[in-house]
Each structure stands twice: as C-alpha cells, then as structure tokens.
Design a protein that fits this description.
Two copies of one chain form a homodimer. Chain A has helices spanning 5-17, 30-37, 41-53, 82-88, 107-113, 160-167, 184-190; strands spanning 57-60, 64-67, 74-78, 93-104, 120-130, 133-143, 172-181, 197-207, 210-219, 225-228. Chain A has 229 residues and is an alpha+beta fold. The first copy, chain A, folds into two domains: 5-67, Arc Repressor Mutant, subunit A (Orthogonal Bundle); 82-219, 3-Layer(aba) Sandwich (Chorismate lyase). Chains A, B: InterPro entries: Bact_HTH_transcr_reg, Chorismate_lyase_/UTRA_dom_sf, Tscrpt_reg_HTH_GntR, UTRA, WH-like_DNA-bd_sf, WH_DNA-bd_sf.
Amino acid sequence: MSISYREVKADILRQITQGDLAPGSAMPNEVDLAVSYGCARATVNRAMRELADDGIIERRRKAGTRVRQNPVRHVRMNIPIVGQEIKELGAKYRYALVQCKAEPAPNWLRARMALKDEDRALHLTCMHYADGAPYQHEDRWINLSALPEAEQHDFSEVGPNEWLVSTVPFTDAQISFHAVAASGIVADYLDCKEGDALFQTERTTWLEGQTITFVQLTYRRGHRVTMQY
Amino acid sequence: MSISYREVKADILRQITQGDLAPGSAMPNEVDLAVSYGCARATVNRAMRELADDGIIERRRKAGTRVRQNPVRHVRMNIPIVGQEIKELGAKYRYALVQCKAEPAPNWLRARMALKDEDRALHLTCMHYADGAPYQHEDRWINLSALPEAEQHDFSEVGPNEWLVSTVPFTDAQISFHAVAASGIVADYLDCKEGDALFQTERTTWLEGQTITFVQLTYRRGHRVTMQY
C-alpha cells in the first residue's frame, strides 16, 4: 500500500524540525518528492497544503515554496459560555440578573457599536458565581434595532449570552483581552478592592454587518486564560 | 463543470446560518447530498469534514452527523515577536538588555519549569520600546541544562525571543493571559505607577518534554490583545 499524505507530512515536518530543511530554504518540488516517496503527486500536494495552512512552510508565486523563517503559531482557543467554564472547573454555577433595562445608548457605545441615532439598546448587568463566590461581572448592551425580541425576553433565569448563542448562533466577533483597575461598583460585586488589577475581555458581535451586542466581562482577581499551542 | 466542495460547504453553511438546518438537527446523509448537489460523494465528504473541523457540525459514530448546539469557535491568534508587533504598529522598535546572569533558579521557578536540583538557569531582563516609549518588560529564564549555548551567547543586540525562535524553532508552549498590579520595579521601567493594572502574558516552552524557557511579558498600561473570530 502507498504512503499516506499524513506520513508524507510527518516526514517533511521531521526534516524541518531536525534541521535537514533549514528555515528559509527552498522546498524540493512536488514532482521530485512524489518520486522519492513513491506516491502520487496529489498526496504530496495535500501534505504541502496542510504544512502551509499550519504556517510551517510558505508558498510564493515566484519564489516557490520555502520553509518559513518564523513559523506562524496559531492558538486555537475555544470561546466558552461562562456556565460551562465554571462547570468545567468542577464548581457549582449560579447566575444572577442585576439589571435589565432599555435605554438610549451612551455616546461611547454608539460609536463603539456603530449605532444610528434612533437605535435603542438593552442594558444588562449580570453576575456569575462559582461555588457561591463571584466569578465574572457581565455588562452587556444589545442593539434593539437588530434584535427587538430581546426587549420582551425574560433574562432572570438564563443569561443573555446563552440566549444570544441560541438566537443568533452564527456571528462575526472581535474580542480583546486587557487589564483594568476595578471600579468601586465592580469591586463591590467581585468582592475585591477598588483599583485591584482585574482581567477583562470585551467582545463585539456582528451579524451581516449589523452590531448585535457589546459586552465587557470582568473576572475575579487572579483569573487566567490559558492555552496550549 | 461540477460543483466544488467549497460551494457545497458554503451552501450547507448558509442553510445552517439561516436556520433551515437547526442546531442539534441531523444532517442529511452524504449519498443523498451528493445526489441533490449532482456531485461526487467525495466532494460532499470533504465539505462535511471541513464543517466538522470548523466546529459547525459534529460527527458521532452512532448518532450520525448533527449541527452543533453551540458551535465551537476557535480563535486563531498569531504569536508575534515583539519587534515585529511594534513595527506593525508603525512605530520604531528599540531593544535594551537590562540584565543577563546565570544563577540558581528560585524555588517557584524550579517547580514551574520542572527543573532538577542541578539545573542552572540564565535570568534575563529586557525592555522593548516603541518610538522611544516603554512598551514591554520581559523577565525570562532559560534552562541552561537544555540550552547550554545560551550562557555564551551575547544578548546585547538581539533579544532572547528572536534568538530562541531561530535556535529551537519548533516547540510546545503554554501561554496564559492575566492582569497584574505593577510592582515598583516594573512600574519604574514601564513609566507607570506602582499598583497600576497591567496586562501580562506568561509563556512556558518545552522541547521534547524538557522545559526550555519561562517568560513573563508585562505590557505598558492600556495594552490590548485583539482578535477576530
């Protein structure tokens, strides 16, 4: 039986890892590789395509295919729903709705969400607890022009994130990670001191060019997001 | 000409997005899909495989293929080298080596890097500037048992990250994002106040099971990591 594309890919990767194919050097051409592996050219092509997708080699129209100088390393990070995140920690999850009201969007939010003058927003504040201790403070705005049904929805039992995921499951989003000093209000909810350094993520979500929601998630002191790559 | 797997994938994705195929519902089988698209079964299979890889559908041995309830969303984030990151901001990059000395690893680091009693570590402190202003403080330890050549290397012109990437290009790593209160020393380097909330990443890098390096990167006030997904 002939060699598989996975075996070809693993063998090329081994040569790169061990330095037989140095960073920046040209890759042998696919026809020659197919001959040396005794396989079809399509098999080599698939292996090369995956190595390019993985950021290990780069294909340039004129310069040919080369081993990358600095391999592109992608982190694949799952975007969890906070309840799932807490359950995966082995803790009991509790949700509380603090506030939910439709109000005119403040100017900073209008700019941020690209809202029009007539757009109204639903402002929600929620708390998420792990084993009874504050875990995450959620401050969310939903664009009521995009999702008018949000205004009638009851968020007292299930948080807006879960509702949004089931209502508008496919969206584009931008997420940012940063540090903030706890405001007095957030410090009170998260049981820490005003000014404490807290990890915060902001997420803006669009559906077909229209902004659906903007959320600030502020985590309890010491929270970390950890990934392997 | 026959329909491509990309067109099949796009059409299925459209049906899921528009709700014709609801979250949790069973996908039609591949043979039926191939008949309805007038294409080879292999074409449908490739489209389905990519949808599964993207976390849109899930394939279970007994339950068959279904539309996922909560699509898995992966962030693909590039791990940049700080000099490239600063140049991409359109700023001038400057590097400074603050300290470089071989010393016994402190206990917390021994545990963290899984060092043996006899292992020595090279401790480096570096600063990275954007247009002359402090951008990132780097506090790095390199395991000299794994990389003895680091002790003789001159890090005064080029930072240890760039050197490591070219010396040990393929590694496993764990990265974490969190917030820290600036220590007096770091505040001094980053030109902020002690206790200010700063964004920090920690990275541990292994090669074939051996820890190569552990680094804490602390960013200037207001730094954000932003991703699309």
